[in-house]
């Protein structure tokens, strides 16, 4: 009886050990699976991080290149505008100088037989500044000004638009008078009429108003 009892005890112990081993093995499998999942997630995260980092670096480089290109383009356009503005100013200055010379010659011609010469000089004065060429150069420097002016004030005459362009360039009354071959008094009167057409109060600065049209 004792031997049989001992055998049963041993069998129970063996079963307990086997059960315990099964539990341990099951836990090991679970731990292995969890470890594999953790490692997988780690590598996926690492790869994703590297991809995002690489994309960010590429985007930053692209943005930097675009900024450099924009900066270069703006610098080039600015230089072109400065050059065109300088050339237009030279053309106006040259025209003013020539007109002043012709006006001086006119004052020296007083005899009746020289009236034909005076008419020729007046014709030259009127043609010295070619409005179409001036308008092309002006539009290159102020590309939207005349369009905005036409949209807001469609009733302006050609002479009034030309006066607006001169005032936009901050030309003096004497310079405008010289370019248009009229007196400074006439220029002042034209400016006053223009001020009313633009809906400005008497004495207001037309030049500042016109600069805001750009």
From TrEMBL:
The keyword Transmembrane applies. GO terms for molecular function: DNA binding. One of its GO terms (biological process) is regulation of DNA-templated transcription. Residues 149-214 form the HTH luxR-type domain. Keywords: Membrane, Transmembrane, Transmembrane helix. SUPFAM superfamilies: C-terminal effector domain of the bipartite response regulators (SSF46894). This is HTH luxR-type domain-containing protein.
